[in-house]
Amino acid sequence: MEKCVIFDLDGVLVSTDELHYQAWKRLAEELGIRGFCREDNKRQRGVSRMASLEVVLERAERTYSMEEKQELAKQKNNYYLELLANLDEGSRLPGAMETLRYLRGQGVASAVGSASKNAIVILEKTGLLPWIDKVSCGLDITKSKPDPEVFLVAAKKVGLKPGQCLVVEDSAAGIQAAAAGGMKSLAVGPLSETLGGDFCAVNLAEVTEEQWEKILGSVG
Ligand code: BG6
Ligand code: MG
How confident is the model at residue 1 (pLDDT cuts 50, 70, 90)? Predict the structure, then answer.
């Protein structure tokens, strides 16, 4: 294969971004942290669990030690895993499955480039894993988006150069990471027009085959 599309997971293929928000909100409430809101949550998109925790703790009235922070991140993940238990094929975002099928038919590789350490379990539960050639996730990296590491690892796993890859992202950090890694990007999601991607669409279902031809033609 000469080209690859590297998909972010949360908010691009699967609607887990809302579940992350619910789990952080539960933790914030338990800590007595007031005012944690969806606007804060926008800055948690694409970044690591610990970086997401720092966003919650910006509103805290006291400081937390590293040990306490690790415990809080673990607690949030437990709440998140409880929510993931209900995940199934219905949690795929519009156009996700159709896009993966289309790309396979075109001989284009599909990979996942996600900061999440839960990526494999999410792909399994939503039935998407057989359609993904390689997964690069939070377990493979030491640097969080906007560092390009997660996408560079994905390209390496597929055996292609960065210039042969297109990144699909719903976060500002992810779009910046794609550019930093020398990859073109397609921004999706409610904020897509504001993210500065090379291409943008509200969701994958909106991207026609004609548009895919144009997008893929700009890669490699
Ligand atoms: C990203 C999400 O995909 O994964 C972030 O957009 C999240 O919000 C990050 O913090 C880490 O996820 P996890 O599942 O390892 O806590
Ligand atoms: Mg995302």
Answer: confident
Structure letter (DSSP) for residue 107: T
Considering only CA atoms, which residue is closest to atom 14 of ligand 1? 116
Could you give the C-alpha distances from 68 to 54, 73, 159, in angstroms and in order?
Answer: 12, 9, 40
Nearest residue (by CA) to ligand 1, atom 13, is 116
Indicate which atom in ligand 1 lies nearest the CA of residue 76.
Answer: 16
- Residue 119's nearest CA partner among 154, 143, 94 is 154
140 annotated active-site: no
Q: CA end-to-end span of the chain, whole Å?
A: 11
pTM for this one?
Answer: 0.95
Q: Give 205's pLDDT tier (boundaries 50, 70, 90).
A: very high
